[in-house]
Amino acid sequence: MNYLGFTLRNNLFVAPMAGVTDRPFRQLCKRLGAGLAVSEMVTSNSLLYGSVKTQRRANHEGEVEPIVVQIAGADPRMMAEAARYNVDRGAQIIDINMGCPAKKVCNVFAGSALMQDLKLAAAILEAVVKAVPETPVTLKMRTGWNRQNKNAPELARIAEDLGIRALAIHGRTRADQYMGEAEYDTIARVKSLVSIPVIANGDIDTPEKAKYVLEYTGADAVMIGRAAQGRPWIFREIEHYLATGKHLPPPSRAEIRAILLEHLEELYAFYGEETGVKIARKHIGWYSKGLPGGAAFRREMNQLECAAAQRELIDRFFTELPAFEERVA
User: Fold this and answer.
1) Which of the residues 29, 100, 106, 306 is marked catalytic?
2) Beta bridge partners of residue 253, listed in sequence order
3) Rounded distance, CA 180 to CA 185, Å?
4) What is the pTM of this model?
5) Which residues partner with 149 through β-bridges?
6) What is the per-residue pLDDT across 244-268, written as a single tens digit (0 to 9) for each?
7) Going by DSSP bridges, is the β-strand pair 42-43/68-72 parallel, antiparallel, or unpaired?
8) Whether 100 is catalytic
9) Are residues 260 and 267 in contact, defined by beta-carbon separation less than 8 angstroms?
10) Could you tell me if 76 and 70 are in contact, meaning their C-beta atoms sit under 8 angstroms apart?
């Protein structure tokens, strides 16, 4: 896929997820079939640029291009400064967050709260585009603030007019959070109204669903978030299905173990052992979901305090795991 001047492996994108899409996770998903991965959102508050968390999120050392950084905030000037800050540190595409439904984000009028105020949203889009004229700027949003106010089509037209180069749309409103099912009619409408690329997001968790959403909406790409947690190989499964109409065999017990251990080593190296061990727990939980004995394994894992103990328990769990043909949903 040709996307904003970059040649991508395919049109399968990793959605930005706070606390999940760090550099180790993005790299792993790209290795396992994703064409592009967006960073977890970076604050536009310059007072936090020196924090360990923000510096980690701005760390793209060795990352496969293109490097996409998502910024969040509600002040046009600060968002413009955040765009310049991240471009100076290697970002090749800047993504603006108007899709996050979290209360702590919306309470400061950032994220999807901006869909309530299209004048402010437009001011932010214009400021960021002007701040980094040589860098493509994209927008992530929802279908609207609530079901009575699905204004994604209006915001999409404003964004295109102001120089936004692509749109990613989650098929829920902010009020929906992650409840119910995503709807794709609004995404299809946006696609019919703009000439820039549109990426469909929301509830894409199987190869068949990816194919359906691409065909139903006419979107140029799909973006996958929660379905990749503990299942980063979903990208190669979808890639293969879209190309051949056939399913890849599920990963073997040995391959899941190898991918998990590789992921953990990257986490330990990136965060340091103490923090890496803590962050690893949620990923280990996702990888073991649906596997026989997974609940007891997770309980024991959550008590461990060092990398060596995590590795040892993973080896024991996968060695004792009964043979299986496919993961349980």
Assistant:
1) 100
2) none
3) 15
4) 0.92
5) 146
6) 999 999 999 899 999 999 999 999 9
7) parallel
8) yes
9) no
10) no
